[in-house]
Design goal:
Layout lengths: L8 H12 L3 H14 L4 E7 L5 E6 L9 H4 L11 H4 L11 H7 L2 E7 L7 E8 L4 E8 L3 E7 L6 H5 L4 H18 L4 E6 L2 E6 L5 H12 L1 H5 L1 E8 L2 E8 L11 E5 L2 E2 L3 H11 L11 E6 L5 E2 L10 E2 L2 H17 L3 H6 L60 H16 L8 E6 L3 E5 L3 E6 H20 L3 E11 L2 H9 L1 H6 L3 E6 L2 E8 L7 H15 L4 H16 L10 H13 L13 E5 H7 L5
Parallel strand pairs: 1-7, 11-13
Antiparallel strand pairs: 1-2, 2-6, 3-4, 3-6, 4-5, 7-8, 9-10, 10-13, 11-12, 14-15, 16-17, 17-18, 18-22, 19-21, 20-21
Helix pairs in contact: 1-5, 2-7, 10-11, 14-18
The protein binds adenosine-5'-diphosphate and magnesium ion.
Amino acid sequence: MTRIALLSQRLANQIAAGEVVERPASVVKELLENCIDAGANRIDIDIEQGGTKLIRIRDNGSGIDKEDLGLALSRHATSKIANLDDLENIASLGFRGEALASICSVSRLELVSNSKNDPGENAWRVEAEGQEMNTALSPASHPQGTTVEVRDLFFNTPARKKFLRTEKTEFARLEEVVKRLALSRFDVAFSLRHNQRSIHHLQTAVTEQEQQRRVALVCGPAFIENAIHIDIEASGLRLWGWVSLPTFSRSQADLQYFYVNGRIIRDKLVTHAVKQAYQDVLFHGRHPAFVLYLELQPALVDVNVHPTKHEVRFRDGRLVHDFLFRALHKALAGVRPEDRLATTPGAVENSVDRETGEMLAPISATSMGEFSGQGRMSLSPSAYGASSHSNAYGAFASPNNTGAQIAEQLQTYKELAEDEEIPPLGFALAQLHGIYILAQNKQGLVVVDMHAAHERITYEHMKQAVANEGIRAQPLLVPVSIAVSQAEADCAEQEAQALLDLGLAVERVASESILVRQVPVILSSANIEQLVRDVLADVREHGSSERVSNYQDELLSTMACHGSVRANRQLTIPEMNALLRDMERTERSGQCNHGRPTWVLQSIDQLDKLFLRGQ
Ligand code: ADP
Ligand code: MG
């Protein structure tokens, strides 16, 4: 054993750097957060070779006083908190006082600053030298604000350097950091250059329209064209931002930005709530896209639970979970055809990006998202009682449309052309191959997948019926006994009433055994043991269980599928129109029960383009 000795400053800082400074992207994150904490509203980022050679960040924030410059580079030195109370009410992004010291210990770092408190134009440069990282000051020239230059990251920690990926990969990660911050602060202008090339140039965005433009620049124009804007407030919580329509789903969870009081987070509770909200409308295995901001009192959330501060802890997790779920669920349920049509501008001038002058991709419902048709669902040949449904388009026996019918229809259109009141999905023209309904609306041609549309409508009606009547329960002939853990049995005992509300009568019969006496009628043929286990797990984790209603939804969805219009059925024009009107009235009718779109639009503009008209 060797003797015990204090670590040198540099070595201590290098050890600390292990936690916060993983790669160029983490350096950029820390430096950008400092700029924002300093109140900057313009930040310029210059990168060379993916950040391994150079990261230079300049801001126009408050700057640092000459006397404090040395301290800025020391560990446990911060201007952001002074006592424990401050830690509970953090308004700044940084507060640990170790970023600059850590970065400085594993790179060649130079900081130049001009403080607004120092009279005159004087700026000062500071660097740290040697094992003890003594700081050296020298005069410099710089407008108000700060520039931090980080060269040769990990030059003195070769082991770390080995973990870096290609320049392209490192830059992509770093760019993601900039995007995240750019979405959190619309009031700050950002520019990002890589190897002397301009990558992002974002002006400050004040109005909702300007903010929307920034979101389009950062997330791609297709996202904003297929998103709805929300702003909901309840019980001291506010949620606003943009969420994608279910038909704009992605194969990966890569377009998901969630901010809590301006700080981006990845949180299990949030992910769960969002997933729940989309669960009924999203194609299996697909991920929604969103840019969302949750605002609440700082004291209701603890941000000091992780060194990179990506996780938070809510004081009342259940309240937050329920609020998020309800807000999003409601917003998605409310999407109607006209919302999508409203965001489908036919005019080209909206599509030119003001800052780059670039044409954004033309908007078309056919190119909605990156959703690639997953093949038609196979339709069950044994579908029951479609004809037993007595809705307007349920009678399928009608023959093909006669010439007289068509003439009559054309007459209706002539009259309608003069009438302003054309409904969003228009009026049916014909049926294609027994699968699609062709309709004409104000913008152009609407194509409806009639099975998918009818399935959703039937499903929503059935859900509504169940919601109105409540969950009907029925006693089991033979109660089911389940062996559980003591904790699960405790939970079953304490939450007996909540379970009863879900239609489940559960009784504790021993310290590790429960008896199920009653279940919802609709689930009587389900695997009851599995259901109850899952419900108990949910109740323990989230304090509530949506599982019964989810499972119920699943069953309803299956039943709706079997009870809906099948392909290759001839519908009359009035039947088709009735279906279109029902779609306009029904919640979530923009996608089928499996998340596929139920209708698309080809505007006259798009058709003109297809035929090269007016070019
Ligand atoms: P923290 O951000 O946790 O306080 P840092 O090591 O990142 O710790 O920064 C140390 C201190 O240096 C900050 O508290 C702040 O006072 C000052 N500082 C760092 N960067 C800037 C900047 N860009 N503008 C003004 N002050 C800064
Ligand atoms: Mg900091």
